[in-house]
């Protein structure tokens, strides 16, 4: 099982500076092949009215799934996003988001996952995503 510190370090080791600027924080103790991240509220990620922008949610979801793959495999494996399908359920304003990502299936060349973004205050889903990755 990959520990929280290793996953947190992966954010600076494998992701572009603009992804690092999201300031994602890995939360502890998730089942194997799953991760929980916190996306801190930031005015820089909000659009008019203080709502978290969809682009930030999608970037956080994609990033969380790569970390879930690291947790699943026990190490980083180069991969690329093939598909990211996102449904925005309701706005999120003025609070942190929690991103729960889990690997549904990972084979030799492809991996599949699902992500739920929820309000940190009440746990209600605000965004759902499904992903497919090519493992390189």
TrEMBL record:
Transmembrane stretches, start-end: none
Presence of the UniProt keyword Hydrolase in the record: yes
SUPFAM superfamilies referenced in this protein's UniProt entry, alphabetically: Thioesterase/thiol ester dehydrase-isomerase
Pfam families (alphabetical): 4HBT
GO MF annotation terms: fatty acyl-CoA hydrolase activity
Thioesterase domain sequence ranges: 54-122
CDD domains: PaaI_thioesterase (cd03443)
Keyword set, alphabetical order: Hydrolase
InterPro entries: ACOT13, HotDog_dom_sf, Thioestr_dom
Family note: Belongs to the thioesterase PaaI family.
Protein name: Phenylacetic acid degradation protein
